[in-house]
């Protein structure tokens, strides 16, 4: 309440964007058989510089190709999991329902544990839906979540990445 009072008393023009967590868009291609659909997906800040990219995949029928190279040159990838949407909405933890998803990299080279270099703007991370054996799981709506930390944005290209991550690697200290 004190902060609201100070904002009003001193005429500070704060907006929602001033306090909202940072985020950035990544181009994503949804693949199902011979069909493909390109969209932008929002990666939202979590903690310690990490971002969560959450991608709905229906009843686990879509693969997703995340064009990491369009926005990033270096990235740390922490996890790639899938969960039923109902488990994410539940009051419980939802960790039990998470399943690791197979990930394939094209134009992306591993440079250390979890650290990757995107060699070109066309570099892609392909995440496949989990294989579901249980009939109940196959009827649920699923979501793939990729947790990543941008280390160095791409300096040129079509992707506009003005929000969410630094111009330099995060391990450098500003002078």
Explain what this protein looks like in three dimensions.
With 175 residues, this protein is mainly beta. Helices cover 13% and strands 44% of the residues. It has four helices and eleven strands. Strands 1, 2, 3, 4, 5, 6, 7, 8, 9, 10 and 11 form an eleven-stranded antiparallel beta sheet that branches. Strand 2 and strand 3 (51-58) form a beta hairpin.
- Helix/strand structural class: mainly beta
Q: Which residues sit in consecutive blocks of at least 5 with pLDDT less than 50?
A: 157-175
Beta-strand content bin: 35-45%
Helix content: 10-25%
Q: Count of helical segments?
A: 4
Any idea what the radius of gyration is?
18 Å
| Sheet of most strands | 11 strands, antiparallel
Taking the alpha carbons of the first and last residues, their distance comes to 36 Å
Secondary structure: number of strands? 11
Shape: globular
Order of helices and strands: HHEEEEEHEEEEEHE
Mean pLDDT, nearest integer? 80
